[in-house]
Design a protein that fits this description.
This protein is α/β, with parallel strands linked by helices and about 625 residues long. It is built from 24 helices and 12 strands.
């Protein structure tokens, strides 16, 4: 493999996601779409009601052609030709109006159904466990919420969803053809069974091809999203050429998948064209054979109108099939997209019903609706970790039966080397991940028995990397609490020590760019503190909140954290051990286990793991202090 090439294992892994998996049947997919379509039934029923009108208007048009030929060649009456011409014009007008109404009604109903589907997909994606999101690139999830829904949208925008109307029109053509001359009709239909076999053969293979197209699109989006997020690293390490080469290979895989789908599309179209031409030739040949058996010229002339009408019927009959060969591409692409969307919806989310009591449901409803200001805080309760086990991947455990307690209203420090499981415990407490074993209790209640909305209202997690959402400062402070209380938001920012900085930038109306790019690390951290002040939870978890800030900002954060932790049950995950002097107890983790716990000074005297960490950090800080003394 050349330098910079995408590993074959990556392409193979993508190829097996949604391609090698067993396909859902078309009927099963339409049944899953049923609830969304039933909600727009009045529009869809209106479209179905005008379908027979359009089919009948299309079906009688060749009859007017026959009557015109008969009037011109047999009766030689100009009035009959004119009557047939006006009748044909009227039928064309009725068909055009019916088709317009069908498309309009189907578009309105379809778009409303897609709005509901897109909303469900987004809401479900936000409730998914982080386990799923950790193993699924964000670009792949975004593709299912956008590009795959757009593929389903093409069913309506291209008219592919009107395939039932085409089938009804073809049935009308066949009915009139058999009414006119059943022998010619049988000759015209003799190639339909082989055509059906060919269409089914192509359908099975085309579905596989279109599933691969969807998988390659998701891979391409995932790669582009990753590179866009890491463009600073790419530029800093001069990796542009290698990334371009990787992108070209992924893009080539996408192109090859599209070529396979296009080949099946072209094959279907050419087969339909060939069958249409062959059917017309068979009808003309059979007609010539019958004309030889006709005794008189007058009888042959009288039969010419029927022959012309049949030729017109054959061309019209295969027109929907030609159109269907084009629409078939859209239909298969849409059904392949549906498979991927429903796979996402089938992923279990954290809000799956458990033992909900009526009070839980009321509290959850209040959390969704929000209020002008947060409700009065409950009295603090203890938090107990009992035999907690966690493995992000099977066979690779992170936590091995962790046991310790955070007493009600007290602050406990949590320390340990990187990878010891500190942040994992914080994530388990707010159920960003689910336990593999053991339990976490708030008071006497297991966190898995507490509805998600209520749990996350009671427990606030301040992480080291703070994410700000695009909008205003006010939007980010009142995040998830319902209607904003402006005065309380201003008070929360002041408690966090950030209000003076923000006043000059617009106060609560100051703009926040994507991911908070126009705010420093320290300002983002203080904004996270302001969120907690505003929400006023009973339990707070600070996950290395000062690890990435400068000394001046650290002083602000330390002051804010002291205000924040007062009167609350708190878990303080610390990087700088000096911040733990005021905690009631320190818990030391090592390789996913509690190795020791006790007071700060007590652990230092023991000379164990914590004492070694303190000495190591002091030795690293001592040269810097000496350098400052010399200056």
């Amino acid at each position: 493999m050349s330098a910079g090439a995408v590993p074959d294992s990556l392409l193979a892994e993508v190829a097996t996601q949604g391609v090698a998996a067993p396909a859902r049947g078309d009927a099963a997919l339409w049944r899953r779409l049923g609830p969304y379509l039933r909600g727009q039934m009045r529009w869809l029923l209106a479209a179905l009601l005008v379908m027979p009108v359009g089919a009948l208007a299309a079906g009688v048009q060749p009859l007017f052609t026959k009557w015109a030929v008969d009037a011109a060649l047999v009766a030689r009456e100009l009035s009959g030709v004119l009557a047939a011409a006006f009748g044909l014009l009227g039928a064309l007008l009725v068909e055009a109006l019916a088709r317009f109404a069908q498309m309009a009604f189907m578009h309105v109903g379809g778009q409303r159904a897609l709005v509901a589907l897109r909303a469900d997909l987004f809401a479900h994606a936000q409730r998914l466990s982080l386990r799923y999101l950790d193993r699924t690139p964000v670009g792949r999830v975004a593709t299912r919420l956008t590009h795959d829904v757009d593929a389903l949208f093409e069913l309506f925008s291209t008219g592919a969803v009107m395939a039932p109307a085409d089938v009804l029109t073809m049935a009308a053509y066949l009915g009139v053809m058999f009414w006119l001359d059943w022998r010619l009709a049988l000759v015209a239909c003799v190639l339909l069974p082989p055509l059906g076999v060919a269409v089914e053969w192509i359908r099975r293979r085309a579905r596989v091809a279109f599933r691969e197209v969807r998988a390659r699109v998701a891979q391409l989006h995932a790669y582009v999203a990753e590179q866009a997020q890491g463009v600073a690293v790419v530029q800093a390490f001069g990796r542009q050429a290698r990334c371009a080469q990787e992108h070209r290979r992924i893009n080539d895989a996408h192109r090859r998948a599209n070529y396979a789908a296009i080949r099946y599309d072209a094959l279907l179209y050419s087969i339909v064209e060939s069958v249409a031409a062959a059917s017309a030739a068979l009808v003309l040949g059979f007609a010539a054979f019958r004309l030889e058996a006709v005794d008189s010229t007058a009888e042959a002339t009288a039969w010419m109108g029927t022959l012309v009408a049949f030729y017109d019927f054959i061309q019209r009959f295969f027109t929907p099939l030609r159109d269907f060969s084009t629409k078939y591409t859209v239909i298969q692409s849409a059904l392949a997209a549906c498979e991927r969307m429903f796979e996402l919806l089938d992923e279990r989310d954290l809000d799956a019903p458990r033992s909900w009591s009526s009070s839980d449901d009321t509290e959850s409803r209040e959390a969704r609706i929000g209020s002008a200001s947060p409700r009065a805080r409950r009295a603090p309760e203890s938090v107990r970790f009992e035999g907690v086990r966690l493995a992000y991947r099977p066979g690779f455990p992170v936590l091995h039966g962790v046991d310790f307690e955070v007493p009600a209203g007290q602050c406990v420090g949590l320390v340990g080397p990187s990878g010891s499981g500190k942040s994992s415990l914080a994530a388990l407490l707010v159920r960003l991940y689910e336990l593999d074993g053991g339990s976490i209790r708030i008071g006497d209640r297991d966190v898995r028995e507490i509805p998600i909305a209520q749990l996350r209202r009671r427990v606030a997690l301040v992480q080291q990397e703070v994410l700000l959402l695009s909008g205003t400062v006010l939007d980010n402070v009142v995040l998830g609490t319902g209607r904003p209380d402006v005065e309380r938001a201003r008070w929360a920012l002041a408690r966090a020590g950030l209000w003076e900085r923000l006043e000059a930038r617009g106060g609560l109306s100051a703009r926040v760019e994507e991911r908070g790019a126009n705010f420093s690390l320290g300002e983002r951290q203080l904004l996270a503190f302001a969120r907690v002040f505003y929400r006023d939870p009973e339990i707070v978890v600070l996950d290395e909140a000062t690890a990435s800030v400068d000394s001046e900002t650290e002083a602000r954060v330390q002051q804010a954290s002291r205000e924040l932790l007062r009167g609350r049950t708190a878990l303080l995950i610390a990087h700088r051990l000096s911040t733990l002097r005021d905690v009631s107890r320190v818990v030391v983790l090592g390789e996913g286990r509690v190795v020791e716990q006790g007071g700060f000074d007590e652990l230092v005297r023991r000379g164990g793991s914590f004492a070694r960490l303190v000495r190591l950090q002091a030795s690293l800080e001592r040269p810097h202090a000496a350098a400052l003394d010399e200056t």
